Amino acid sequence: YFWSSWTDGKAKITQKNEADGKFSVKWSGDKGNFVIGKGWNTGSAREVVYSGTFNPVGNGYLSVYGWTTNPLVEYYIIEAIGTHNPADNPEAKMKGNFTSDGGTYNIMTKKRVNKPSIQGTATFDQFWSIRTVNQVGGTVNTGNHFQAWKDAGLKLGKQNYMIVAIEGQDSSGDASITV
Fold it and tell me: pTM of whole model > 0.85?
């Protein structure tokens, strides 16, 4: 498994990269941003099976999360959220919806300007599939999302890493996930 841990330095987190596909994180203080997770050092169309718990107090995401290059894209397949739905952002552009793995997802995109990326500070697009009803545990067929994005006119590049991720933004909470 590929392990990834990013923080802006403001988030107060305790993280554990445990055996096999398991990891856990606790966060507190209602400040800062982090993304932590476990997966693969090259993303692909695959069935991602995961289980666990996700208990945000405030804004948080449980997602299959990854990056591509050429073009540089940050992508999220959101399975569960805390108090904030990224589709509520006025900069978000809705691109439709589709059904996969027993749930309906809304597709959206948003441009990030001069923000942190896997290539340093950069301008890039975010692609989002947001499950309309939270689910913690199950299967995510990433290929279905990649195809739905393509059908909506959203172009991915060469796959970089892809993880099952926990993200917290100015919040608190805990999560324990097995991939």
Answer: yes
